[in-house]
Amino acid sequence: MKQAAELVFIPAIGIGHLASSFEIAKLLAARDDRLFITVLTMKLPLESNFKLKGADDAERIRFINLPEEAVETKGINLFLKLFVENHKQHVRDAVAKLTSEPPQSDCKPRLVGFVIDMFCTTMIDVANEFGVPTYVFFTSGAGFLGLVLHLQTLHDEQNKDCTELKESDPDLVLPCLVNPMPARVLPGVYLDKDGATEFINHARRFRETKGILVNTFMELESHCLRALSDGKTPPLYPVGPVLNLKSEPEGSELAKKKEILEWLDDQSPLSVVFLCFGSMGCFGGDQVKEIATALEHSGLRFLWSLRQPLPKGELLFATPQVAVLGHPSVGGFVSHCGWNSNLESLWYGVPVAAWPVYAEQQLNAFELVRELGLAVEIKMDYRREGEVVVRAEEIERGIREVMEVESEQRKKVKEMSEKSRRALMDGGSSHSSLGRFIDQIFL
């Protein structure tokens, strides 16, 4: 019998990244009882009391909170870089302690690798010090991974500066996409000097790793995944959809969820349009009025998760998105196209009206609408930092389109829903891919 193996997971900050890492860790541990996983968590002070549901009971998975590090700097990209860099010594210390612990039995697991978040590539240095390989867990889709790697190649081999791309520039031809991509849907991070530099650096380091786990599945992004199997990219393991479908709110949040679901119970099947733009998706007053006008004119029943900017340090109840999308009365989803939201909507067969806000969401929206025909467009090139107000007429058109019961998009989404579930079943594409990854670990 082969010796047990230990993987060290290093998620990025933020509950979304931590929860995704926990989900893939659970999948791995459930597949092979020789696998042990230690998750090293970097937390901001505001997250210090947060606890993942089920973390204490997860078999062969343990969490170690690293000492907190304060970083004083302006700009999110520089902050993330310094924040992760400042944790390197804490990771060294934690892994050194882990490897020096006396065995509890004759089959103490050997350290076989690091699994790092896409934003934590500096931790490759630490893995190298311990003489083990690094794998990346890429929490977005293969389309974004393909863009990241392509722009790094253009920068390093052709000296092209992606921050100079403008809306008037010719469309970008990317190997990972069938259709040329308009420059106006380029993720905002690539229009910022610091952000572009950081992502190009991350992409270079991705190429140093032994493999990349991607939260997608072959049936969804087959063209992109094949394009990335070019011999220049580390082996890809599409293991998605990696979703947390069982999280439960507590206290007042549980009561609010109950109230929402009871209201949905009283509505007809496919009659409610759901609007939610993620934890950072808030709009100004003028835009909120346009959305309200569109909803009123549509005459449709709706559930709207309406947020406003909060004072620093305050947290807000989050609409129970998974439970809402899974409810039979919900017929359409007006979404920011965050990758987790995309996968959740596909899982439940709910078509999306795409209204991206930040991060890589513009590219996600382009992929869903133009590449895959799984969504309709409200405004794919919307950027929160811009001054554009999307008018009620555009919003209403998108809402009516996404709620059409016999639409081509709804048919395709239903088919992809079935494929997403089959991908995780025994013998499915993602199930097999995860098996190949585990085989690689034990080589």
TrEMBL record:
**Entry similarity comment:** Belongs to the UDP-glycosyltransferase family.
Q: Which domain of life is it from?
A: Eukaryota
Q: Name one Pfam family in it.
A: UDPGT
Native species? Pyrus ussuriensis x Pyrus communis
The UniProt entry, under PANTHER family, shows: GLYCOSYLTRANSFERASE
Q: Which protein is depicted?
A: UDP-glucose:chalcone 2'-O-glucosyltransferase
The record's InterPro entries line, in alphabetical order, gives: UDP-glycosyltransf_plant, UDP_glucos_trans
Q: Which GO terms describe its molecular function?
A: UDP-glucosyltransferase activity
Keywords, sorted A to Z: Glycosyltransferase, Transferase
